[in-house]
Design brief:
Helix content of chain A: 25-40%
Strand order of the largest sheet of chain A: 6-7-8-3-9-10
Order of helices and strands of chain B: HHHHHHHHHHHH
Largest interface: A-B, 49 and 32 residues
Oligomer: heterodimer
Structural class of chain A: alpha/beta
Helix content of chain B: over 70%
Largest sheet of chain B: none
Structural class of chain B: mainly alpha
Distance between the termini of chain B: 40 Å
Order of helices and strands of chain A: EEEHEEEHHHEHEHEEH
Strand content of chain B: under 5%
Shape of chain A: globular
Chain lengths: 245, 290
């Protein structure tokens, strides 16, 4: 299990400052959700953490090591999905393990197909899957490498509300079972409260972490949690803070 | 932690969101393909009517039955001995078609190897693209006929010049399609592959080529069509075999029916060649079907 840290990360695109000395720490096995106003730089921060964008200042540390490039140990899933459209689902899931030269590729793929409920679709192309299936498959593709860290950029943002709720329940159980350190970027407060152990609120651009809030709902969360009065109260408070950030 | 969502029920519910079944799409495709014979049959009927009513001189356009007879003689007529350098017609059809196809395929194959290699280099490296783009764009603007004199000087009258001209004609579509499609591979695919552990030197094989393949195949189809069209230009350089050589000889003797036979042969073989290439490459590009 690995601690993921952003240390004083700043980033600008030309004259536009996007990130301003961001500090955050995601504890081993923890799910940390970043919430913030639209366009504040949440996705940019995640891309820096993944190694897709260099930071102008600061560094990303994983288990105390400075990391700079994309790597199988930090798997990232974006809203648009990351499946290769020319590969059947089975080969998409096998992509990472094959690159790593693993000998148990078939076993890994079979386990992930079961875990995603997609065993009947192993030979289907991504375009033949529904949106929810594609996003589960994209997460499974990344999990196939057994990454200690998962970076999720609004992974269910394109799904309808019902499918999204089912995906939240599924992902929460998957993350808990694997004890994966997870950094989630979202603008959906429900999603953040259902999935995260802790929230970080970002300011408007240039983004800074203005507040960190522990999420008190432990254990299994799902559709029943949405009507919990404590959940409803907390959601309203967080929405207030995000809207004034 | 218990799984709150029943995966079996979830997947069952999602089946309703799946795209249209392939079986229905295929049925529609077959029906649309069958429609493709309607226009040729109508054109043939109109041609027969115009000829039968005498609305057009046989010296300008011979009747379909005259062309059919010439076609029968071309492929199944009695083969006659001809003087060296004289292009045979009766019974020489298969030989001419074979010579043209062979000439076309040799040059096409070379154009594919060169076009894909250079296209990959241009698409993968901004430096290479900046260096060579102006030269390539200028060269491909040179009309094929402008290459004819220099081809004759460099490769001599006949086979060498013919193959060179077909190669030049076939080169550009596959080269440009490869370079363009590879340079436009979505960044997300590259990032995903890098994140999943693909080293940079393997990206071209694991991501760039598979992602660009549908457009490369379109380039291949255009190249093959152009190669086949360029056969007639190549065979004007003095070859004694080939459909183009036969048509050139027919023009000199005023046999318009033989010219039309040659045109039909070009059309049919070109169409069949495209069908074969599409069939051979369908498996590689079916993922991009909509």
């Amino acid at each position: 299990m690995s601690t993921l840290r952003a240390v004083q990360i700043s980033k600008a695109f030309g004259a536009v400052a996007v990130l301003d000395r961001i500090d955050l720490t995601v504890q081993p096995g923890e799910t940390y959700a970043l919430l913030g106003p639209s366009g504040c730089g949440k996705s940019t921060l995640l891309r820096v953490m993944a190694g897709f964008e260099p930071a102008d200042e600061g560094r990303v540390e994983l288990a105390g090591r400075v990391v700079t490039r994309p790597s199988p140990e930090r798997g990232m899933v974006a809203q648009a999905g990351t499946l290769f459209p020319w590969l059947p689902l089975r080969d998409n899931l096998a992509f990472g393990p094959r690159e790593a030269g693993r000998s148990d590729v078939d076993e890994v793929v079979a386990e992930l197909l079961q875990a995603t409920g997609l065993a009947d679709f192993a030979d289907a192309l991504p375009r033949q899957l529904s949106g929810g299936m594609q996003q589960r498959a994209a997460i499974a593709q990344v999990l196939a490498n057994g990454p200690p860290v998962l970076l999720l950029d609004e992974p269910f943002g394109a799904l309808d509300a019902q499918t999204r709720l089912r995906m939240h329940e599924w992902l929460r159980s998957v993350l808990a079972a694997r004890e994966t350190t997870t950094l989630l970027v979202t603008h959906d407060v429900d999603e953040a409260l259902l999935l995260a152990d802790r929230l970080g609120l970002l300011s408007a651009r240039p983004a800074r972490v203005v507040e960190e809030i522990p999420v008190p709902f432990g254990g299994a969360r799902g559709r029943h949690t949405l009507s919990d009065p404590a959940f409803v109260r907390m959601k309203a408070q967080i929405l207030d803070r995000v809207l004034v950030a | 932690m218990p799984l709150l969502t029943d995966l079996a029920r979830l997947t069952q519910a999602e089946r309703g969101d799946l795209p249209t079944s392939p079986a229905r799409s295929q049925g529609r495709r077959r029906w649309r393909r069958a429609l493709g014979v309607v226009v040729p049959l109508l054109l043939l009927g109109a041609w027969a009517m115009i000829s039968g009513l005498g609305w057009i001189s046989p010296g300008l356009l011979p009747a379909p039955w005259t062309v059919t007879e010439a076609g029968r003689d071309f492929f199944f007529g009695e083969r006659r001995t001809t003087l060296a350098g004289v292009v045979a017609f009766d019974g020489a059809g298969w030989g001419h078609v074979g010579a043209s196809i062979f000439r076309c395929l040799v040059s096409f194959a070379l154009a594919v190897v060169v076009g894909i290699s250079v296209g990959l280099a241009l698409g993968l490296s901004r430096w290479v693209a900046d260096l060579f783009d102006p030269v390539i764009n200028a060269l491909r603007a040179v009309p094929l006929y402008a290459w004819l004199p220099i081809s004759l000087i460099w490769f001599g009258i006949g086979e060498g010049a013919a193959r060179a001209l077909i190669f030049i004609g076939a080169l550009w579509p596959v080269l440009i399609a490869t370079a363009d499609s590879v340079s436009r591979v979505p960044r997300g695919y590259i990032e995903t592959a890098r994140m999943l552990g693909t080293p940079r030197h393997r990206l071209w094989r694991r991501v760039y080529v598979p992602s660009a393949l549908p457009e490369i195949v379109t380039g291949l189809r255009l190249s093959l069509t152009l190669a086949w069209m360029c056969v007639i230009v190549g065979e004007l350089t003095g070859t004694s075999t080939g459909v183009g050589a036969m048509m050139n000889a027919a023009r000199e003797t005023g046999r318009i029916d033989e010219i039309v036979v040659g045109m039909f042969v070009f059309a049919v073989v070109g169409y069949l060649a495209d069908l074969v290439l599409r069939g051979l490459t369908r498996r590689w590009v079916s993922w991009a079907d909509t």
